[in-house]
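Hi again,

Forgot to attach this to my earlier email, sorry! This is the prediction with dinuclear copper ion bound. I've pasted everything inline since the attachment limit keeps bouncing my files.
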Amino acid sequence: MNDGGTVWLPESASTLAPTIDSLFYFVYWASVIIFAGVVIAMLYLIWKYRRESHADRMKLVEESRLIEATWIVLPTILVLVVFVWGFRAYIKVGVAPPDAYEIRVTGKQWLWEFEYPDGTSTTGELHVPVDRPVKLVMSSTDVLHSFFVPAFRVKHDVLPNRYTSVWFEATKEGTYKALCTEYCGASHSQMTANVTVQDQGEFESWLKSAGIPSDASPVERGKILYEQQGCNTCHSLDGSEGTGPTWKGLYGHDAQLADGSTVTADANYIRQSILKPGSQIAKGYQNIMPASYGSLSERELTGLVAFIKKQSEKGRAELKAAGATSDSTAAAAADSISTGDEQQQAPSGPPGAMPSAEASNQ
Ligand code: CUA
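Structure tokens for the complex follow:
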């Protein structure tokens, strides 16, 4: 297979690909040959028995044991070959080598989350070492998704309340696309992830640096989370329309709600919108934001609020007044104060358990 793939198959970059591809091409060429044979025979007979021809139409057709045996035996062999070949490939794809590197995958509307054995977690970005078997143990927090990496020839359903798994061994460094192939709601088509294959050394150093650095300021933290948590799939920063409201100029301004009321988009409004997305729907938008963000920690919430602040004039002024420059550690303290002191002690449990969220939006 050449590098960029063919008309029929995408580029191949795993040890499973040759097995799948050879089977595909066997079925493909068998179909081409049988199709050509049928069409050629048909055209010949059309020509032979056309109206003007003097072909002998009176001769009785006699049975031929040879032809009958051929059309029974040949297709049977063909089907058995495909079955055995396919079954072996199926087993190979289904059973991971015992020494495979295990990564947890969580599908949720509408993003992919990856958790590594050392606790690092990323969203929309999967890194794997080259030439090493990797096993993905997958589940979903909401509906049925399906994890598909065309270049690796792996695809498997991802279900709520159950683990499923696939494995692969990447053979080529590079970046590949992972897709969701089960219709799962409004942003299904944007539920993708980049799969980066690196050599072992690069992979390990990436793993060390991935996640949120402990010395990141709240705004920096928020910026990382904006991508890591997949906020960017629905909320733009440049004012453009998305599945959800843009964050540009949001903070500090009036927000129109679907029930006709108006609230000020302050830190508490933002906080509640993250933890209980269904409680205050912005006008013109649907109630489709996942409730799974209720599990964000206080630290993460503070970061997101600070980052959203940064997206409006008023918020920037506040950040500046509080002395929050992007590299100052004092920013953490200053920012915590502006999100509301009383909430710092709030547990980051289920979203329904937030004590002070309701009091905030008058
Ligand atoms: Cu998840 Cu489609």
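The two ends are 63 Å apart (CA to CA). The first strand starts at residue 101 and ends at 108.

That should be everything now.

G.
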